[in-house]
Amino acid sequence: MTAVCVFCSSSRSIDERYLHLAADVGSAIARRGWDLVSGAGSISMMGALVRAARGAGGRTIGVIPEALLALEVADHDSDEFVVTRDMRQRKGIMDERSDAFLALPGGIGTLEELIEVWTARSLNMHHKPVVVLDPWGDYDHLHALLDHWQKQGFVRPDAVRQVCWTREVDEALTAIDERRADLPGH
After folding, report:
1. pLDDT tens, residue by residue, 16-63
2. Distance between CA 72 and CA 44 in Å, rounded?
3. Which structural domain, as residue segments, surrounds residue 83?
4. What angle do CA 175, 181, 186 make, to 5 degrees?
5. Residues 131-153: tens digit of each pLDDT
6. Predicted local confidence at residue 70, as pLDDT
7. Spatial CA neighbour of 135 closest among 49, 32, 41, 22
């Protein structure tokens, strides 16, 4: 069984197209028979993602820190609902429970989660696929920054290649599948 951790926005002030994207990803993950690991949010993209996954028969694993429970944004309908003491423990559990990582458009939390799993991958701390689904170019400025950092010698080209950049849902999930197939033991 493959478990995919998806990072995405919890902002309530984003365009509706992002909610549709998250829902498409959730249902596509479920159709492949994969588990969905999420930050256990019930609003915005996070909520659309998990509801669509369950609606398509998928299993969801939500991991949330205690501090966010008070905000009443938790996805209590998760098939498995894990409460952690803090964000660091949350990310550790999400990492452990996941076979791959998929980042959708989002804010600083999404970016931080992407950068952390990407950095760990580039340092050979894990070999799990890291894929970005970016249909509308929300990560274009990050690409420009990475190009600049490479030119300045701050980022190795092989570190940049550790992430697969995609524009369509099926392309992103196929990239995960192909990269998982290349791992030892698969």
Report:
1. 999 999 999 999 999 999 999 999 999 999 999 999 999 999 999 999
2. 13
3. 3-180
4. 155
5. 999 999 999 999 999 999 999 99
6. 78
7. 22
Question: Which CATH number characterizes residue 169's domain?
Answer: 3.40.50.450
pLDDT at position 73: 85
H/E run at residue 36: strand 35-38
- Answer yes or no: is 174 within a domain: yes
Per the structure, the count of domains in the chain is: 1
The percentage of the chain sitting over the pLDDT mark of 70, rounded to a whole number, equals: 98
Q: Quick one: pLDDT band at residue 181, thresholds 50, 70, 90? A: confident
The residue to which tokens 């998806």 are assigned = 6
Q: Which helix (H) or strand (E) holds 178?
A: helix 169-181
Phi, psi of 32 (to 5 degrees): -80, -5
Q: Is residue 82 part of a domain?
A: yes
Q: Residue 22 carries which side chain, given as an amino acid letter?
A: A
Q: Which two tokens mark 148? A: 């600049």
Q: Give the DSSP letter of residue 113.
A: H
> Do the domain assignments include residue 14?
yes
Does this model's pTM top 0.85? My answer is yes
Between CA 66 and CA 148 the distance in angstroms is 38
Amino acid code (one letter) for 77? D
Q: What single DSSP character describes residue 165? A: E
- Tell me if 175 is assigned to some domain: yes
